[in-house]
Sequence to fold (257 residues):
Amino acid sequence: MTRRKKKHAAHANHERWMVSYADFVTLLFAFFVVMFATANADKSKAKVVAEAVRAALGQRNSREVADVFGNMVGSGQGVDHAPKIDEQARLTRTTAELMPYMQLLQKSLQAEIKRGNVEVRMAARGLTISFKQAAFFDSGSDVIKPSAISTIGTVGQALLKIPNAVRLEGHTDNVPIAKGRFANNWELSSGRAIAVLEVLTNQFGIPRSRLAVGGYADVAPIASNDTEEGRARNRRVDVVILSEYGATNEPNPSNKN
Fold:
């Protein structure tokens, strides 16, 4: 008579809790990924954040999740180390701050805008009024045409009502200067910006402490230099009314005029 072997009772698996714990840690890490990305919101990073979350939810353990997200940040694809305000948010705040002045200038300069002599546009750093070279200067010259003084005066009258700092920025196309009193487009663009400054301060009473001048030659075009129409747009002097954000990168002027 054969003896039946006694079946040993199955041992309890005391490590099953580790599976649930690992899943919990994975989800918790995914949660912090989302919170970290949200605190440093940047539209340009939205795709990367989404990929990080998907990767987190698709991994089996927290170590793999950390590797995925760490690789993204380390390769420069992730959130910047220093939080940056979104460009669209800057533009929204600038528009709210300067829109009344934009509407005032568009109304005051309506005829010049229609003729194509002036262009008014809003950007994150401020409100820009572009004086087109053809209406304000002869080719290769920094002498303002007498017919353009009244237009500059219209802008000057508006600036007296606006407390913001102002930058005067000269621009040219990419065609080198053949001859004349200026050696290159850098000198020409700076000279034209200074000429507008002199009119604003001497004839219309704008305090010099509110103004700054820059010459950009052809390095900051607003249109293609491959066409005559584009080059004509690029030959300009910009009067930039700086927003609160735009002024943060400017030196703090003295209170003297």
The chain has two domains: 17-74, 87-249. The chain has nine helices and five strands.
